[in-house]
Write a structure and sequence with these properties.
about 280 residues; alpha/beta; Rossmann fold; about 40% helix; globular; catalytic activity; AB_hydrolase_fold; AB_hydrolase_1
Amino acid sequence: MAKDPQHTDTPLQVTGEHGPSSRLFVRNVVPPRPDGLPLVLVHGAGVDSSFYDSFAACAPARRIVAYDRRGCGQSADALDGDWSLDAQARDLASVIRAAGGRADVVAHSLGAVVALRLLERAPRLFRRLVAYEPPIFCGLDPDDEVFANIERARKALARHRSSTALYLTTQRESIGEPVVPYSERELQCRERNMQTSFSRETWAFDYAPDYDAIHGSGVPVLLCIGRQSDATYHARNLDFLCQGLGATSAVMPGGHNGPRDYPGEVSAAILDWLR
């Protein structure tokens, strides 16, 4: 009789330059005989690790490590007040090291920006990286319509109008309606997740990859885009990013939230690439 995977939820203390920096909630799903390296899942903005619950269930042979980024879900706020992208990258590095020191990483949206920053700094922690629709705007035509959207979003956030910023985000990304209802776990910390995103993570608008470091790392990168995102800036920037990152591209079912909305199909395609 096959044994069920072992589920454990553990806190992980992250130390920064001046002491404790964050305390992360980390969920481990470990099958009796894990296949390959751990698969670390990094969620995007406005959500937490529950975004990947169905995706993780579709990868029963892999050890899954999914964590709530600082200020999200059941993780603590930044204990040292550091909400920077570099602090987020240190968090991810700590998660990978605690999982064994090297991993395959699947990162969605803003989480993909976090993973790319860590790849620039510590490529030895990665075997392969899947970056799913990272919000990267460099490479686009300066007159691209997305920049007007971003400017309106910046002004809304400066006035603490998070509902307006959320509307502009759904206009910018092909999010659409959820294919399946939100679970209780997804809704548990929804308000906190959104507030963290809109008040602490505006650095996402300005991230520009270090293409030389990423391309030269030798770590294979898969850049994913949803089929329903073909009219968004992700599609217009795909070729530029693939060339700069040395990445392979893949079109997935659904839109921006494909890993959540189509977990079976998306996980099958990603796991096949990770073999």
